[in-house]
């Protein structure tokens, strides 16, 4: 196994209509080989096929590499808040899923 991805059909906040990528991890030995980009693309395709129009995720504020990865894939920071489990500061990102 090279990586794992966990998605959520919706966030626990009922005012948030978008599905979420809850976790995407790639084995360190496979970093910078396009695996994360490919997996993220497959997740987007799946949500798009299900009729979803956008996807969100959160990145810990102390993880600039992850923020750079997601913004390079077209995600935009739309806000900041603490994560629900441990209260750590995070950036919330969103990407509109254009129909292909």
What is the radius of gyration computed over CA atoms, rounded to a whole number of angstroms?
Answer: 13 Å
Structural class: alpha+beta
Unreliable spans: none
Summarize the amount of helix as a percent range.
10-25%
Average pLDDT confidence is 93
Largest sheet: 3 strands, antiparallel
Q: Tell me the strand order in the biggest sheet.
A: 3-5-4
Shape: globular
The rounded distance between the terminal residues' Cα atoms is 30 Å
Topology:
Elements lengths: L2 E6 L11 E7 L8 H15 L4 E7 L3 H9 L3 E7 L6 E8 L4
Please tell me about this protein's structure.
The chain contains two helices and five strands. A three-stranded antiparallel β-sheet has the order 3-5-4. A two-stranded antiparallel sheet has the order 1-2. With 100 residues, it is of the alpha+beta class. A hairpin with a 6-residue loop joins strand 4 (76-82) and strand 5. The protein starts with a strand and ends with a strand. The mean pLDDT is 93. The longest helix is centred in the middle third of the chain and has 15 residues, at 35-49.
In short:
The protein is of the alpha+beta class. It has 2 helices and 5 strands.
Notable characteristics:
alpha+beta, 35% strand, 100 residues, single chain, 2 helices, 24% helix, two-stranded antiparallel ribbon
């Amino acid at each position: 196994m090279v990586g794992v991805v966990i998605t959520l059909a919706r966030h626990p906040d009922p005012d948030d209509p978008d599905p979420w990528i809850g976790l995407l991890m790639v084995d360190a030995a496979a970093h910078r080989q396009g695996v994360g980009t490919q997996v993220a693309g497959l997740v987007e395709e799946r949500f798009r096929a299900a009729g979803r129009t956008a996807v969100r995720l959160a990145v810990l504020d102390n993880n600039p590499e992850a923020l750079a990865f997601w913004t390079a894939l077209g995600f935009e920071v739309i806000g900041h808040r603490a994560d629900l489990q441990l209260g750590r500061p995070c950036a919330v990102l969103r990407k509109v899923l254009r129909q292909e």
